[in-house]
Amino acid sequence: MAIMLIEVESSKHKVTLDGMEVGYFFSKESLLDGFEKRQVDIPNLCRKGTCGCCKLLLLKGAVKQDNQTALTQEEMEGNIILACCSYPREDIEVEIY
Q1: Fewest C-beta atoms under 10 Å: which of 10, 27, 46, 48?
Q2: Nearest residue to 48 (alpha-carbon basis) of 67, 34, 35, 22
Q3: Is the dihedral of CA 92, 46, 28, 72 positive or negative?
Q4: What pLDDT is stored for residue 6 in this prediction?
Q5: What is the DSSP string of the chain?
Q6: All residues at 6 or more sequence positions from 55 whose CB lies less than 8 Å from its CB, including other chains
Q7: Cβ–Cβ contacts within 10 Å for residue 74, how many?
Q8: Tens digit of each residue's pLDDT (9 = 90 or more) over 21-69
Q9: In a 10 Å sphere around its CB, with 0-12 CB exposed, 13-18 middle and 19+ buried, how is residue 52 labelled?
Q10: What's the burial of 20, exposed, middle or buried (CB within 10 Å: 0-12/13-18/19+)?
Q11: Which burial class, exposed, middle or buried, applies to 44 when counting CB atoms under 10 A from its CB (0-12, 13-18, 19+)?
Q12: How many other CB atoms are there within 10 angstroms of residue 25's CB atom?
């Protein structure tokens, strides 16, 4: 019998920003949208991954990141993500970069 793992559409993951727990974000909700929904202000401009204003350092956990053009290869290898293009896949800890 095969076992199939399916990601639940409404899965939630704990998000911690600069050492403070912000709340539980849906996996289909960008980090930027989740922060704004909870009145947490982080720098942002374009909301589509081109300006780089919403850079975060991913300290722990994993995100799915949509297409973006603001980050260099070096930044991506250094766990820098964009809040506007990143979606939590598990509990995460981030810092404003």
Answers
A1: 10
A2: 67
A3: negative
A4: 47
A5: --------TT-EEEEEETTEEEEEEETTS-HHHHHHHTT-----SSSSSSS-TTEEEEEES-EEE---SS--HHHHHTTEEETTTEEESS-EEEEE-
A6: 70, 71, 75, 80, 81, 82, 83, 96, 97
A7: 8
A8: 999 999 999 999 999 999 999 999 999 999 999 999 999 999 999 999 9
A9: buried
A10: exposed
A11: middle
A12: 23
Token pair in block for residue 35: 């922060």
Q: Are 34 and 25 in contact (CB under 8 A)?
A: yes
The two three-digit tokens of residue 96, written as one number: 């404003």
Task: Read off φ and ψ for residue 76, nearest 5 degrees.
Answer: -60, -40
According to DSSP, the β-strands at 20-26 and 63-65 are: unpaired
